[in-house]
Amino acid sequence: MPHTIKWLSWCADTFERAGGLNQPILMYLTAPWCHWCSIMETTTFQDDQVQQWLKHKFVCMRVNVDQYPHVADRYHFGGYPSVIILTAEGEILQGENYLSGREMISFLEESFRKHGKHACHNSSRFHAQANALQDKHQGRDEADRTLAIQPSLSLRKINQILDRSYDQEFGGFFIDDGEIKFPLPEIYDYLLSFGMGYSNAQEVMMVRKTLDQMLAGELYDRENGGFFRFCERKDWTHAHQEKLLESNAGLLSCYLKAIDIYGWESYKGAVFQTLNYLMTDFWDEETGLFGGSRRENHLDRIPYTNWNSLMASVLIRAGRIFNYPRYLKLGLQVLDLLWTRCYRFGQGMSHFCAPETSAPALLTDQTQYMLALLDAYQYTGEKTYLKRAGLLMGQMEENYRMPAGNYGDIPIIDSKPGYLKIPLIPFMENMDVVLLFMRLAHLTEIDLYKVRGENLLHILGPMHHDNPIFVAKYGLGLLELGRFNADQNLIDVCEH
């Protein structure tokens, strides 16, 4: 039977509709690359009884997590699909991941009963849940100020954490229990940077083996080019067939750094093949930008600012390393198109450009676009890119900076439904702010940027939770700070 569920979008009107009807909201978190989402949509949501329940007793809201990652960060249940029941105020009543038709009916029946009981009480639990979510992600302002004076991670401690998670047999790093192997460009980037000048260091051997094994296994598509999202086995086999622009751009950046710094020429073939693959199979002629993901023959054509910015940086670096003007021209073209289509006066960069959909503005879009602008400036010397970065930096300070000195994932001034009222402090994006400050200090010789970057680095230090991805990103900040101080000492010596 035809799909008859009336899906609404994430917006204040959806919550107001639920309140007016006194009905719970079924929020479905999905992604175009998600295999189990596709199965659920062709089975569970096609079930006649499920459709009747949803039509008469729920307000249905579908959220693409690539378009609205800030919503997913606050509501997902560990993976996708996530099916969450909300009140009209945005409070979570319960949630699950994949559900069959029979499981969904039981889930909806229980949810409807819970909603009826909840309506008899006040919404004080919403505030308790909101406070718990905020505490989980970054703590109170007072706690942040206390954290700022605690000691930061050392490079030795970072390397010990990474060594413990390293797979000696097949390369790569384990983040959680189990055999699943995800490509983790942040870790490889740090190890490549740490090993500069020490080609025989253990850290360099770890990343070399990992880069080799990914190409030798099934993560890399040797027929078409590009990297799949992850492998189910630790020996880099049983790859899931979806590909993401984000992970491909991140891995390309690492392979390019390996070629540029260490001269590992054997990676050139995979780099060229993957670049050409992305420039054809991910390229959208209509927008002139890259789509977000590809699963089987379907390309998600929505151009995301943060991921296209990563790709622009890759193309600019590839143009420099290989002396190939075509790559440079395309990278600069992507940056200019993003500026034309996604820049909002006083707000900065929107997350994507799709005229029919309201796009949020997220911290990740500001940081990734500014980092790409600095790459463009360093390669071309064109001051327009530096001026854009300076303008966006000022707007980021106004819209995202929290009282404790760190940065929220969404603008602090917007009116927001549900848990979007809760400011979250994303560790990785805040570390990108650190890297931005340090690079701007290098390029402009404005010492204030260095001070701001160092202060934020100390604030973030205790928030890593020994997560290998977090500590590797933190290590990049430490390395940038160390190089800046070394350069300044050299300048001081030369001047005297």
From TrEMBL:
InterPro entries: 6-hairpin_glycosidase_sf (IPR008928), 6hp_glycosidase-like_sf (IPR012341), Ssp411 (IPR024705), Ssp411-like_TRX (IPR004879), Thioredoxin-like_sf (IPR036249). Residues 4-103 form the Spermatogenesis-associated protein 20-like TRX domain. SUPFAM superfamilies: Six-hairpin glycosidases (SSF48208), Thioredoxin-like (SSF52833). It holds the Pfam family Thioredox_DsbH. This is DUF255 domain-containing protein.
